[in-house]
Amino acid sequence: MTELRLTAPISWLDGIDHRTGKIVQKDHPQYGESLAGKVVYVPHSIGSTVGAYTFFALRKYGMAPAKIVLEEPDSITISAELAGIPVEIKGAREVKLEIAEEVYEEFKRYLEKEASISDARGFVKVSSVHISGVSYATIGEYGKEWLANLKNKVNFRVVATTNPLGMDLVRWREMGIPDKFARGQLDIVESLLSMGALPSFTCTPYLSGNLPRYAEHISWGESSAVSYVNSAIGARTNREGGTKTIAVAAVGYTPLYGMHLDENRNPSLEVVAPEIRDTIEYYELAYLVGQEHPNSIPIYTGLKEPNLPKLKALAAAGASSGSIEMYHIPKVTPEAKTRASKSISVNKKDLAGVREELSTFDGGTDLVVLGCPHMSLQEFKELAILAKGRKALKTFWLYTSRTILSLVEGTSIWAAIRNFGAKVWADTCMVVSPLEEMGIKKVTTNSTKAAKYLRSLRGLDVELLSLREIIERYSRRE
Ligand code: F3S
Fold this sequence. Notes:
Layout: E1 3-5, E2 39-42, H1 54-60, E3 67-70, H2 75-78, E4 87-89, H3 105-117, E5 123-125, E6 128-131, H4 136-150, E7 159-162, H5 172-175, H6 179-195, E8 219-220, H7 223-233, H8 242-251, E9 253-255, E10 269-272, H9 279-292, E11 298-301, H10 308-321, E12 343-345, H11 348-358, E13 367-370, H12 377-387, E14 390-392, E15 395-400, H13 402-408, H14 412-420, E16 423-426, E17 442-445, H15 448-456, E18 461-464, H16 467-474, E19 475-477
Parallel strand pairs: 1-2, 2-3, 3-4, 6-7, 6-8, 10-11, 10-12, 13-15, 13-17, 15-16, 17-18
Antiparallel strand pairs: 5-9, 14-19
The structure holds FE3-S4 cluster.
């Protein structure tokens, strides 16, 4: 059988063309090669946990690899098994899940396979799951069908919150979402809720009632949330494939390997950061580290006790350009160590390079999008201060969870933002909603993660600016 050896990690969500099976990840050494029908050797994956659904798409279009051989355990790639694509790793041994509970057998077998591939030390009970791959825009018909098939067969055993949808569940018509898209999205919601998922529809579940404790074992999709809770809280989760989160929610246990074990949570790289203040510089810093050291656990030194929006930015950026599941910051990370065996220094010029790389235009946007990850109370406050006494010159769309929205609505923050002219959507985000189908071509954002995926997934032109620059460029004094 023909073999294809990938010499760099792959982003399953936006690095493969579903219809041709070809690698479309920019700058990938095997760019343009097809996976179809081949034995594909993969070092590991990077980027979104929703990439797990790509295997269903490849199968649907007849472009699936015959087999995947992994170099190191990686939950997202192992999820290919759920789409019927065999995954192997050298030296696997059988690990069984012995539980008294009656659970959905197919998922139990799948988790045993993952445990075997990952050389897991058995299984651990999880206290919560966060499900990624909930938007019709990212999982499509193939994901919708898979979830519909589980509808009357699966009952979740643990708390399971959900990632953003492709639309605001209440005001989707006002957003301009096409009817056909809304029908597909509502079917997905119905399937998930029937299994017992909770309608949080946010990538910041830790701000919406699903807040794990220090050292608690959990199983979360959504790479930004994974990195945030490992790093800022000390909870323990691997970067789980979206389909695997469904399996764990149904079974209640996850294989014990990777970030669940003490010895895998130590920093591997010291990153000496320049003096930075603005949140966008945190995005740029982690984006750069993720790109150049995708599988590392960085310890950032030189940062001045960053607040929640900055910690969120570090988490989202490093997990989107790379596969960073955890970072350390002295006095922030509960398990923070002070040293790593390797060290690099980053300067301001390096950070400016990230902005240059991700931006495709300069001025004249169609739409400003803020809230990747979903806006927190602090970010609303920060925006309200900058926007006070100003009027937007372009359309501003802000994305947050329904929980945070309910806290902000009716307050002075809300009044300032509404007077400025911004609209706030809940349940969705700029990346997982079909902006291109709504006639948008050029977007401006302050998030490197949004910038990356708005280009690769939505095919839009992107301008990356700090929040302050956005307000100065796209609003005027009253
Ligand atoms: Fe969240 Fe969407 Fe960004 S899910 S992390 S706002 S891409």
